[in-house]
Amino acid sequence: MNAEARFAALEAQSFRGRRNGGPTESSIGAIGQVVQIFRNHQLLGLLVRRDLKARYKDSALGFLWSLARPLTQLAIFYFIIGQVLGAARGIPSFAIYVYAGITAYGLFNEIVAGGSNSIIANSGLVKKVAVPREIYPLASVGGALFNFSIQLGVLVLATIALGQFPLTVDLLYAIPSILLIAVWGSAFALLLSAATVYLRDLSYLVEVVLMVLLWLTPTVYSYGAVRDALTSFSGGEVLLEIYTNNPIALGVIGLQRAFWSAGHDLDVWPHALLLRLGVAILAGLIFLVFTHWVFRRLQGNFAQEL
Amino acid sequence: MDRPLGPEVVRIGHLSKQFVVRKDNSLKERIVGFGRVGRRHREEFQALHDVSLAIRAGETVGLIGHNGSGKSTLLKLIGGILDPSDGTVERRGRLAALIELGAGFHPDLTGRENVYLNAALLGMTRNEVDERFQAILDFAEIGDFIDAQVKFYSSGMFVRLAFAVAVHTDPDILLVDEVLAVGDEAFQRKCMERIGDLRDAGVTIVLVTHSLNVVQEMCDRAVLLHHGEVIYDGSPRDGVKLFRERLHQGAGPVDGTRHIKDVAAFGDGMSPGEAVAAGKDLVLQVALTAMSDIEDWTCSILVVDVQGRTIFGTSTFEAQGGEWQRATPDEVTVTFRMRKPALVDGRYFVNVSIQLREPQWAHLEDVVEAAIFDITSEELVRGLVRIDTSATVRPS
After folding, report:
1. Which residues from B are below 8 Å from A199, CB to CB?
2. B34 CB-contact burial (10 Å; exposed 0-12 / middle 13-18 / buried 19+)
3. Distance between B259 CA and the closest CA of chain A, angstroms
4. Candidates A2, A54, A127; nearest CB to B109
5. Which pLDDT tens digit goes with each residue over B45-103?
6. Mutate to test the interface with B, among A1, A4, A16, A20 (most CBs of B within 10 A)
7. What is the domain partition of chain A in residue ranges?
8. B108-117 pLDDT per residue, tens
9. What ipTM does the predicted assembly reach?
10. CA–CA dist A192, A203 (Å, integer)
């Protein structure tokens, strides 16, 4: 391009800039920022690939290692908690039930844990390159979704191998469930990635909370057991509603509903599951808009805080 | 310069930037130090104050000033990496920031993968990289290594590849921070040629450098910053001249420090400010105060040339064979005597630090460019050091 052509092209463009107090590009708001992120979708893809490649670099088994954790977890849950402690009683095809739950929870876990560290992990880039910073937590989300898809593949293969492939309408529950977890996970990833820059303790706190949250979702015990336990005393219904409407618990239950065909006819499901999923997705989207707003408020000082 | 200038591409109005330096970063410290005590942990630092500037397309602008004068901060604000505390920064066109070469390089990816990733970070699409890949490869001169992991690269190959990507992004505005001095001389010449090509193509270049020669050779305009304010904006020749004068004022008594009060550099038997004749001993005197309650310290010095290259560094610890200073009186004068330093003609700066044994040579106080001295000699010496040489020519 010669100088005249460049100057003419520049003349036609309008200025974009930053103003005092305005934490983001003043002339563009949330929507403009989303457009910017979309413009950088190729970069997002490259960052996801970078993270995945770097994680299993030089290892002979490569991506298979991403299965090591959920499968070990499955083995422990299945034998120790299921058989030794007897949690498997009353839950047919316990292995599939547990694995569906672990897979769903694992997605949320990885999005939030990876996402909350993403700005710090990419501090070199954050300090030196001007791209929308939302890219970094979103790249964590992308990596987590990739690992999730491998695990989901294993789940599908397992159901086929056991002759229990859930070829029913209920399989469609998988779509809103995954969407629900991805939306809430991304929202927390955005919020925590920005907040962790200012308060490093958060990343440790997040680990602990994620561990507790695992046991607050029906992964190794059935939803029916919780319901029976909580409704056995007065006031328990309120607690049960709180427990049930935890979006992560809903996502886990939804994925179980989709893949655990052995339990379709059992009385272990919350009523109006589909409606609950829909409302939770909507709430998640509103929460995502809010956390994106927080992220944009906080991101202006990233470069100097890191 | 006779090149035509285009429309404005960067507009900066009454721009200020403060940094809050917080010394606590954990939850416990925040909670414990909440409120009154918390204030003590905050220090405000005014990096830029009321800067207004307009840059037109096709200009090459050099930002010069002391370390800490705010020039790198200004560059980051233009690049959108930092947000202003006050005022506005506006820009248009595609921007590529060479704040640090290879910032996006990941050691475990191959050169090829890194090229695509880094180019994407600088705003290029996949197709654009595909088109220019061969040109980038040719420029970097790394051959088959392009498909090896970057961690196996020599540092020279690394910077060559990083630079090659950066100068092939075809930006409208190129921000450069001290990265021009990479690779060997031949490669540097190639980089300069490439930057010259970009300038001819109407690219606006804003560069931060310590090399005043680069400013005089390349820039159409110099902006001199001093303590966060623009004190000169105009021709590179005058800007560099003013900067050199300012630098000279920087010698002598030091303001705003607790311990390092006065630093002087002079030739043996001469007074500060006089040029030191080559071959003479060089004396560096550092006056310190309030040192009695400091345990196990050392005073270290660094001699730096005008291009920011470290020429020599030592400390009382090293020069005294491994001794830490303890139980000294409040007022101390540290004298370094350098015997016949092998320095070539030119101007040198002295950075002075007080460092502590615990924790791990922590810097208690630093003064950058605390003193200045010039070296002069009769004969012409090229290169970095002076080596006492004799020569004979005989029939063989």
Report:
1. 25-27, 30
2. exposed
3. 27
4. A54
5. 888 989 999 999 889 999 988 777 888 889 888 888 888 888 888 888 888 777 666 67
6. A20
7. 30-305
8. 888 898 899 8
9. 0.79
10. 8
